[in-house]
Amino acid sequence: MTETRVRPPGGAPGSSTLVNDDLAPTTKETATWRTWDIFCLWMTSAHSIASYGFAVGMLALGMTGWQTMLALFVGVLILWLGSNLVGVAGQKVGVPFPVFARAAFGVFGANVPALLRAVVAVFWYGIQTYLASTALMILLLRVWPGLASWTESSFLGLSALGWIAFLVLWTVQLAIINYGMEVVRKASDFAGPVVWIGMIALAIWILGKADWSIDFNARAGEPLSGGATVAAFVGVAFLMVSFMAGPLVNYADFARFSPSKKAVLRGNAWGIPFNETAFVVLSIVISLATLKVYGEVLHDPVALVAEIDNDAIVMIAAVLFATATVGINVVLNFVSPAYDISNAAPKYISFRTGGIITAVLSIVVLPWKLWENQDFIIYFLGGVGALMGPVFGILVVDYYLVRRQRTAVGDLYSDHPEGSYWYTRGFNPKALIALGISGTIAVIVALAPDSQTITALSWPVGAALGAAIMYGLNVKRPVSTP
């Protein structure tokens, strides 16, 4: 079936209050993201300081190295299947995530999931910029040791050198987004592959220190019983999905620019099961080597780089890690809120303006203080992030089962009561009820005290409940499909 793309003569589709040039459907001229670009997009998504920290952090749950790798691989496969569902739909309809969500939530109701996604992205954008700045600081201190005096005083919790490094990367990222999605594509194509150089070099260096042998049966946490091992295995698999839940939900922001379904599926296949698995394996290998050499797992590759006594290698590695983190930040945490904020008032806020708002907010939240406050990350970002599972379930069921892959694209931009996605004053009560119920339960699961096994299930519980409730509310009185 083909989508009904409506564009009135001489202008953007639908009502002027719900569209701007950035939110309008993709055209043949702008469909430039081919298999390689999608592959690099997922490489960029996986290759970051935070991704490495997440992968090796799973060792602390008590499983062995090989058990952890296998559990993360299962999570990667689930992520791959989800990306195919969202990516194929996004490419077919040709609109960004907040506009795609209008079909399920209503033309105004879509702001609810969009702004929830934006909140998570803004905070993580600031945190990732800060993490990248730590790599830049190591580089600056190796080149100019005298700058150490600039780290002695602080303003709002960050040293003078820290502010310089943070604002340099903040400016670079803002410059990238200012030139639009085509420059984002080129930045992703560069940042995605380049970090492999740093990771492989780091692996060779630490393996050399470990006498080229590591124990895949080693573990960082206390040994687990049989039942506890199974629970931890399931938990790690779904934590892998939860870690990428936000990017998975707004994947339409990128898949819309692909010229074909085949390009999306091929890019997903190379970028997720192949590349992300390889990155996970390399991360675990490095962490097991650090466990042997230092007696503990180093969760931050930048801290490991700082241990290298060769200045040239340190400088190259610092540049690579900073570049990779900038890449993932632009792709995962800048594009999404730029679209999401623009969607709230398309007539007044463009994609670039949404990006500027995102960048300013990322400073206001003082991300270096947030990174130190793990309770905030767990309770606030973890709680809001848990809502991404229900949003995923609702969108997928609405598109594939309720509307059966039919979309009146023109009506996604219509604020007239006759529009297909007007529902009740622009809001779809069924989708909001499904999100309210499943989201509440998902957040409760995510914030369960002293139980990593239970909290790890927030994404599958939320996604399954959101999907089931959305389908149940529509099965007897389905929405009309155009």
TrEMBL record:
It holds the Pfam family Transp_cyt_pur. The keyword Transmembrane applies. The chain crosses the membrane at residues 41-62, 69-89, 123-144, 156-178, 190-208, 228-251, 272-293, 313-336, 348-370, 376-397, 431-448, 454-473. InterPro entries: Pur-cyt_permease, Uracil/uridine/allantoin_perm. Residues 1-22 are annotated as: Disordered. Keywords: Membrane, Transmembrane, Transmembrane helix. GO terms for cellular component: plasma membrane. Gene3D superfamilies: Hydantoin permease. CDD domains: SLC-NCS1sbd_u1. It is found in: Membrane. It is a multi-pass membrane protein. GO terms for molecular function: nucleobase transmembrane transporter activity. Belongs to the purine-cytosine permease (2.A.39) family. This is NCS1 family nucleobase:cation symporter-1.
